[in-house]
Amino acid sequence: MTFLVPLPVIIPLLGAGLTLMLVRNPQAQRAVSLTTLSATLAVASALLFVTVRDGPQVMAIGGWAPPMGIVLVADKLAALMLVVSAAVTLCVLVYSIGQGMADGDEGTPLSIYHPTYLVLTAGVTNAFLSGDLFNLYVGFEVLLVASYVLLTLGSTENRIRAGTTYVVVSLLSSVVFLTALGLVYGATGTLNMAQLAGRLDDLPGNLTLILHVMLLLAFGIKAAVFPLAAWLPDSYPTAPAPVTAVFAGLLTKVGVYAIIRTETLLFPGGRITDFLMVFALATMIMGILGAVAQSDIKRLLSFTLISHIGYMLFGVGLSTISGLSGAIFYVAHHITIQTTLFLVAGLIEQRGGTTSLERLGGMARLTPLLSVLFFVPALNLAGIPPFSGYLGKLGLIQAGVDVATPLAYLLVAGGIATSLLTLYAISRVWNLAFWRSPQAETPPEADDDRDEATTGGPGQPGSLLPRLMVAPTFALVALTILLTVVAGPLFEITSQAATDLIARTPYIEAVFPDGAP
Amino acid sequence: MIPNLVYIAVIGVLFGAGVSLILERTLTRVIIGVILLCNGVNLLILMSGSPGTSPIVGASPEEDMSDPLPQAMILTAIVITLGITAFLLALAYRSWQLLGHDEVQDDVEDRRIMELAERAEGPHADENDDSDDSDESDESDDDMPQDHGADRGRSPR
Fold first, then answer.
1. Which residues does chain A have within 8 Å of residue B69's beta carbon, measured at their own beta carbons?
2. pLDDT, tens digit, for every residue of A165-192?
3. Which domains does chain B have, with CATH numbers?
4. I need a labelling partner for A249 at 20 to 30 A (CA). Which of A41, A121, A463, A474 fits?
């Protein structure tokens, strides 16, 4: 079944080419994009089924045997990430089509939106599947360049401002990554991850430490780990709602995925796992304190996004099977939940004309449906039982208590505190935007400036919600509830994936059946 | 492999100059910094392989050949840098078109805090005034090339 492995990369790229040819025909573009992403989702699901049944699947590109050529590897972790990301991108695509129809395409010029979106998907899947560090770099670049275009769509003043920061910071992380690649190749003579796993072990400790730190630095910027996260809340909220949603869901998680790979496959038992835990704690606390102080829903959600990256790092830093399993579960949960919340924020903007908490009010009476769509994922994010957020946090906290070092206990305490503060931040949104009695009509000219400055696009206040925007949001909310229902089997898969990651041999043996050269 | 001291010095200079230019305020200088930095990285990758004769089978004994892989990687990196540089230049041009300069501005939070400090008022002082104004960005939408493309794209509707 190895022929399935490259398909999640090839299909979106083909679709991107097709949609580019169909620039003059928006309807055909939509049809092609929808088909493409549905096919990607189907292939990813098949791949997950096969990897869980038969172990990691490997494809040597062009038939070049592994140490020479580039390999794509789908193990359980990669396959699971693929399924979740494909499902999320499909829902967001439907949502953006709905929004494009509602807005008359002003915020999202459709002609370049579809090809760029599909290229972004291809970059994400390539990064997940890559079994070669340089190919991982290429995957990162593909998704980043697509994200530059999506973030500056329409090139209004605000998006140019936010885009500049975003592009330069991302570029800097790419330069650090590329430097690390040069050093890794100079030290070991290979960039194949399975081969590196063996060769890095033989290097002197100080050299591995340098390589390790450089790679973590590059991925840390992408994953928005605390001291390197300042770019995120500044750039994400200015993009159109579906773009922000897919960025928030996927891009940082690709960084987290790369950190998981670095920590388990390349540098297991590294000397800086304790530092990773400290950064995890700082990310959680600083992120959520930032969220509490915000008065705009999109910015608030961006800060909760940073904060919850800390939970995943916490699991990775524990480097036990249960810790990693919890981290992987949390990644899957957080991709869906964060995307859902940003889509809901887009709906609020559509209905209420703004995402500023000072001006919203009475949404619960205005649109009961929307308030349900917000309420369920919001509780899920904060970790209220029985939702998947609760289960993910529970798994991580259990893993922390099992490790039972003072640092682990500190992280457990920090995790619980973050969960409570998330609940506080989220209930503030709920109280102000949904439960408060409607705000007295302020003349729109008086304070419209700031709102449009932060959101980037004018929404028509009071316009009804298009069905094509509500349906995918509803589907994503259903997906988050589904994650709760299937949490048992899902934890089964994630702990298998974590066992494989810690053991390392399933991955290495899949790439080199006759032993690493 | 013995590292070549000249290369190391050049890489050091390129990195140093690149970093100090990236810390500048104008986007044009940042772009030049990025280019220098990327060239420094490319040299670094080149150094990670062994030098030698051209790697063509039969042209020379295998031990004397240079390592072709770093060169292939540099080619990829150059292409990516080229694309991103073009994009950054477009951003700088667009910024100049909209604002008359290409300075990288402070982020929203920084500006808000600065305004607060200037006015030294209560926490709600930041509501009505942000340096951006909506009608400015509205009129800027008019002269966008993409929008014309999108207009034509959806004209059948």
1. 185
2. 899 999 999 999 999 999 999 898 889 9
3. 1-104 (1.10.287.3510), 107-157 (no CATH)
4. A463
> What's the Rg (C-alpha) of chain B?
24
CB-closest option in B98, B149, B156 to A109: B149
Of the candidates A122, A87, A156, which has an alpha carbon nearest to the alpha carbon of residue A12? Answer: A122
Using a CB–CB cutoff of 8 Å, tell me whether B37 touches chain A: yes
pLDDT tens digits for range B18-68: 999 999 888 889 999 999 999 999 999 988 888 788 888 888 887 888 888
**Residue A209 CB coordination number (10 Å):** 15
Contact B73 A145 (CB under 8 A): no
Is B146's pLDDT higher than 60? no
Would you call B83 an interface residue with chain A, using a CB distance cutoff of 8 Å? yes
Peptide bond before residue A386 is cis, with ω within 30 degrees of 0? yes
Does residue B76 contact residue A138 with C-beta atoms inside 8 Å?
Answer: yes
> CB-CB: which of B34, B45, B130 is closest to A171?
B34
Report yes or no on A99 lying in a domain: no
Would you state the pLDDT for residue A460?
45
* Minimal CA separation from A183 to chain B, in Å: 7
Q: Which of B88, B140, B150 sits opposite A156 (nearest CB)?
A: B140
Nearest Cα of chain A lies from the Cα of B36 at a distance, in angstroms, of 11
* Residues A414-459 pLDDT 10s: 999 999 999 999 998 888 888 887 765 544 443 444 444 334 344 4
Stronger pLDDT, A334 or A161, i.e. the higher one = A334
Our count of domains for chain A comes to 1
* Residue B79 Cα, gap to closest chain A Cα (Å): 11
Range 126-145 of A in CB contact (< 8 A) with B: 134, 138, 141, 145
Neighbouring CB atoms inside 10 A of A427's CB total: 14
Tell me whether B130 touches chain A (CB under 8 Å).
yes
Contact flag B45-A163 (C-beta cutoff 8 Å) = no
Per-residue buried b or exposed e for A261-276, using 16+ beta carbons within 10 Å of the residue's own CB:
bbbbbbbbebebbeeb
- Give which of B73, B74, B75 to mutate to test A binding, by max A Cβ within 10 Å: B73
Query: What is the extent of the structural domain holding A312?
Result: 272-440+499-506
Whether residues A155 and B108 touch (CB distance < 8 A) is answered with no
User: What is residue A284's predicted lDDT score, i.e. its pLDDT?
Assistant: 93
Which tokens in the block code for residue A64? 């070049």
Angle at A77 between CA A76 and CA A82, to 5 degrees: 95
Say what the pTM is.
0.87
pLDDT single digits (tens) B65-112: 888 888 899 999 999 999 999 999 998 888 888 888 777 777 777 777
